[in-house]
């Protein structure tokens, strides 16, 4: 403890010499709860369509500074996932991953529910009448097709920007595949979740069976949900760890999701995105492998000026929303 206090005093002294300047009284700030930070960051302007994001099945808006809102946007079809959706999600999140202005993403469904899952009417011919002259060639085609569909949700996980899923109403079938690839999940009280694939004669193959056990940490419950296709209601989803918070309705849920995204966006993008990358890696590797990966990662990331800026803000009792971090 004494050593830690000594290090703290030394760091404070070093930063004071290097970067601190007297703060005019008019600019002095007091510490406030993080919720107030998010409220200050929240823009009162109406969302505007994000440039370079024009899709048939999605709508992407710049909801607030550094925050993109991705909506499943086929409300007349219960946001069922058609052929365009499987292609456009990959394009959308690849662009977001490379967008230096974006620091957090909220994904939700337009209309009365999150998603009814795969659009069977639109996808039937591609799945039930696959190409190929014989069993071997047809199998190669199907494997390639399934791998392509898997990327539709894996691209969310690969995107270094934190992705918050905000779910209301039904989240069925491929919807569960989608949300389990997200980093944080909120839902409204009317939400329910259903691993539906067995009821249509197949095993889920685009992420649920691989990610859901790691998300909720209860293999027995995962097996029950997958074998029976029963609905998991919002309270059970909260108790099992599938979602971290439940809200009375969609409006309050979305407000909370954007408040959370705003809070995340005030922090160093180097720190936040490095954290996501290391969390995803460590989930699939041993503790030793994860520690080794983090050491290798941070041997370069520790050289960022974001550390100096963040610690300086703490010393000066400033809020991170008042710190300008370079784009990443």
UniProtKB/TrEMBL annotation:
<keyword id="KW-0413">Isomerase</keyword>
<dbReference type="InterPro" id="IPR045002">
    <property type="entry name" value="Ech1-like"/>
</dbReference>
<keyword id="KW-0576">Peroxisome</keyword>
<dbReference type="GO" id="GO:0005739">
    <property type="term" value="C:mitochondrion"/>
</dbReference>
<comment type="function">
    <text>Isomerization of 3-trans,5-cis-dienoyl-CoA to 2-trans,4-trans-dienoyl-CoA.</text>
</comment>
<dbReference type="GO" id="GO:0006631">
    <property type="term" value="P:fatty acid metabolic process"/>
</dbReference>
<keyword id="KW-0443">Lipid metabolism</keyword>
<comment type="subunit">
    <text>Homohexamer.</text>
</comment>
<dbReference type="InterPro" id="IPR018376">
    <property type="entry name" value="Enoyl-CoA_hyd/isom_CS"/>
</dbReference>
<dbReference type="Pfam" id="PF00378">
    <property type="entry name" value="ECH_1"/>
</dbReference>
<protein>
    <recommendedName>
        <fullName>Delta(3,5)-Delta(2,4)-dienoyl-CoA isomerase, mitochondrial</fullName>
    </recommendedName>
</protein>
<keyword id="KW-0007">Acetylation</keyword>
<keyword id="KW-0276">Fatty acid metabolism</keyword>
<dbReference type="InterPro" id="IPR014748">
    <property type="entry name" value="Enoyl-CoA_hydra_C"/>
</dbReference>
<dbReference type="InterPro" id="IPR029045">
    <property type="entry name" value="ClpP/crotonase-like_dom_sf"/>
</dbReference>
<comment type="pathway">
    <text>Lipid metabolism; fatty acid beta-oxidation.</text>
</comment>
<dbReference type="InterPro" id="IPR001753">
    <property type="entry name" value="Enoyl-CoA_hydra/iso"/>
</dbReference>
<comment type="similarity">
    <text>Belongs to the enoyl-CoA hydratase/isomerase family.</text>
</comment>
<dbReference type="GO" id="GO:0005777">
    <property type="term" value="C:peroxisome"/>
</dbReference>
<dbReference type="GO" id="GO:0051750">
    <property type="term" value="F:delta(3,5)-delta(2,4)-dienoyl-CoA isomerase activity"/>
</dbReference>
């Amino acid at each position: 403890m004494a050593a830690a206090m000594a290090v703290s005093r030394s760091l404070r002294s070093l930063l004071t010499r290097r970067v601190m300047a007297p703060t005019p009284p008019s600019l002095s700030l007091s510490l406030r709860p993080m919720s107030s930070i998010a409220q200050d960051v929240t823009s009162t302007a109406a969302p505007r369509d994000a440039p370079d994001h024009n899709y048939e099945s999605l709508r992407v808006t710049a909801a607030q500074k550094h925050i993109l809102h991705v909506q499943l946007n086929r409300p007349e079809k219960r946001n069922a996932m058609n052929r365009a959706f499987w292609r456009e999600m990959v394009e959308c999140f690849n662009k977001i991953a490379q967008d230096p202005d974006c620091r957090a993403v909220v994904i939700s469904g337009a209309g009365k529910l999150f998603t009814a899952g795969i659009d069977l009417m639109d996808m039937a011919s591609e799945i039930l009448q696959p190409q190929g002259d014989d069993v071997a060639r047809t199998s190669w085609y199907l494997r390639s097709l399934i791998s392509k569909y898997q990327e539709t949700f894996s691209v969310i996980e690969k995107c270094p920007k934190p992705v918050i899923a905000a779910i209301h109403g039904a989240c069925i079938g491929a919807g569960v595949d989608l949300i389990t690839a997200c980093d944080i999940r909120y839902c409204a009280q009317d939400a329910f979740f259903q691993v539906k694939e067995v009821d249509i004669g197949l095993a889920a193959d685009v992420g649920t069976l691989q990610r859901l056990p790691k998300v909720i940490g209860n293999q027995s419950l995962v097996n029950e949900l997958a074998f029976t296709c029963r609905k998991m209601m919002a309270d059970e989803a909260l108790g099992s760890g599938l979602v971290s918070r439940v809200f009375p309705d969609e409006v309050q849920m979305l407000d909370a999701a954007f408040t959370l995204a705003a809070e995340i966006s005030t922090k160093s993008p180097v720190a936040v995105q490095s954290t996501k990358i290391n969390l995803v890696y460590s989930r699939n590797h041993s503790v030793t492998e994860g520690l080794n990966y983090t050491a290798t990662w941070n041997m370069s990331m520790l050289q960022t000026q974001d550390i100096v800026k963040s610690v300086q803000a703490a010393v000066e009792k400033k809020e991170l929303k008042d710190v300008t971090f370079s784009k990443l």
